[in-house]
Amino acid sequence: MAISQTPSRITVQPIVPAADSDVDFGATISNADIENLTDADFDVIREALFKHQVLVIKNQGHASPKAQFEITQKFDPDSGENYGHGKTLDAKRSILHPDLKTIPHQPQVQVIGNGFVEEYEGLKNIQLRHPHHRTFHATTIPDEDDLDFTRFYRWHIDAALYGLAPPVATTLLAVRVPGGRKQTLRYDDGTDEEMTVPLGTTAFVSGYAMYDNLSPEDQEFVRTTKVEYAPHPYVWMSSAKSRSTGLGMVSEGKEVPLDDLPPIDEEKIQILPMCWRNPVTDRLALQVHPSAVRKLHLADGTVVEDLAEVRETVHRLQRPGISPKNVYAHDWEQGDFVIFHNRGVIHSVVGAFAEDEVRLFRQCNIAAARLPQGPVEVAAAV
């Protein structure tokens, strides 16, 4: 990615939501070339990311893995070069292990998708597997309805949540996108909520809207509460199952016992604020990875250790935020380059593909140099 000092021609256009949508984030970036950004270009993109949270840049299929890594890293220039999950992908029991393939010459960039790909960026004869809810949810859509109906797979933040700090930004490039049929996304949680989504969409919701829409009492609670995440969380949760909405786990006592996890370094266990502060706007986002939560640390020093209670509390706070009116479901086109603020939105994979529907994407995020900042009042008290 060449850097020069020419003035920026980039324009930022907020995404206009549908009439029945409350989505207030997302923007399209025009006149940008990821492979050839000026410093002025990046300054515009950086400001737009922290304001709009999800940025869509069209026609970037020519962008190299190196350029993708470089722009991702520039959002956190002190971050180093570690992929956001570090080496946890190598743990065979991790729920992340089957879903990603690492590009050999740019190991911070992963290949994700669906179907057989003969060769791509040094990877040969790879079988990609789009995550399907039947491998992760406690209940499933019947097989005969599988191609017409789908669910949110897992709402999450891209983060190891153990040792490595959550990445600031994630980038996604659509290299190959299958035909544009639609699916009906079902919540299946007794609410009768559903929505029509493009095949293989990535769904986003705003942590800022989640916080803003809470009652004053709940806002006070989330501002003053911290979440303790499980050690090696993606191994820990690997035997458990998710709610039908993909928003957190069902409590059945199926988590891998701590004694059966890889060796635990207590200093790597992360206790993070429930609210993360935007470094540009100072807005607060309710930013919690619901599947990985293990304990809650309350303002009065109480630690809630009952896992079912912890999960129910987090679910009650987050569930309104994933209702259809709050979801931006991106309709992918080949060459789309999407940058999202990983500390301001949560997102989910969506979709059920047929075997012959080949989808090829690149993903990049970098473990951050520092942990997220919480509310000023909490930060001052620590």
UniProtKB/TrEMBL annotation:
InterPro entries: TauD-like_sf (IPR042098), TauD/TfdA-like (IPR003819), TfdA_dioxygenase (IPR051178)
Cofactor: Fe(2+)
Top-level taxon of origin: Eukaryota
Domain TauD/TfdA-like: 21-362
Pfam families: TauD
Keywords of the record: Dioxygenase, Iron, Metal-binding, Oxidoreductase
Family of the protein in this entry: Belongs to the TfdA dioxygenase family.
GO molecular function: dioxygenase activity
Name the UniProt record assigns to this protein: TfdA family Taurine catabolism dioxygenase TauD
